[in-house]
Amino acid sequence: MPRSTPLRTLLPWAFLPYIAMSVIHVAALATGSDIAGPTKLWLMPLLAIPVIASLRLRPVLAIVLLLAAIALSWLGDGAGAFFPAGPELPLMLLFFGLAHIAYIVLFARVLRVRRMPWWALVYAAWWIAMIIVLGPHTGALLPAVAAYGLVLGGTAAFSARCHPLIVTGGVFFLLSDTVLAFRLFLSDAMPAWTSPLVMLTYTLGQGLIVAGSLVALRKRSPR
């Protein structure tokens, strides 16, 4: 039996806990349930399961970067809970910024399969538009928000060089943070349903990036 068969069978099942928790969490947000907070903190640990199940894939750098991005995203998700004495938003930007850098390195050094497509310029236009629209409302956080926007746009742009699942995940991740930014800095203009939308697009983005990365690595690994 080929070595790849057990992993090919395992991977879809390994994502089921993450998918189930994502559905529960988004539903909890939509209904105002008290379990929204705790379920959020379970998302990234459950997303790590398929990566841990794929430890034999090569190169090792790819698995390390995936786990680092997931761990840093978990710290970003729980910045308020893990560091109650610290400033939540700056810490969230820091941890997610580092997670995006890990993704950028992964996409640029390991998973790229094509040149940067011309349409990726839309992400540069996105960054400029976000600074113009949200900049006046960010106050002292403008430099941090601008820097975070660069790495977020960079993740989406470099994802465009990779497997289609990763490309789609990059788009959803960008959409999630775009809606979140408007909720943070233009909260009066954002309806309540945008709260579950942030997490719906976030969980889709993260899940698709990890799934696409593992699929791409599996195709490249020795049989």
Summarize the structure.
The protein has 223 residues and is an all-alpha fold. The chain has helices spanning 4-14, 16-31, 36-52, 60-77, 79-82, 88-111, 121-138, 142-159, 164-185, 194-220.
Low-pLDDT segments, ≥5 res: 1-5
How many β-strand stretches? 0
Oligomeric form of this entry?
single chain
Broad structural category: mainly alpha
Helix content: over 70%
Shape: globular
Number of helices: 10
- What's the gyration radius in Å? 17 Å
Give the helices and strands as they follow along the chain.
HHHHHHHHHH
Characterize the largest beta sheet: strand count, sense, and whether it forms a barrel: none
Quote the average pLDDT: 89
* Terminal Cα span: 10 Å
DSSP strand (E) fraction? under 5%
In words, what does this structure look like?
It is a single chain. The protein is mainly α and 223 residues long. The chain has ten helices and no strands.
Write the layout of secondary structure elements.
Layout: H1 4-14, H2 16-31, H3 36-52, H4 60-77, H5 79-82, H6 88-111, H7 121-138, H8 142-159, H9 164-185, H10 194-220
List keywords for this structure.
single chain; 223 residues; mainly alpha; 10 helices; 78% helix; globular
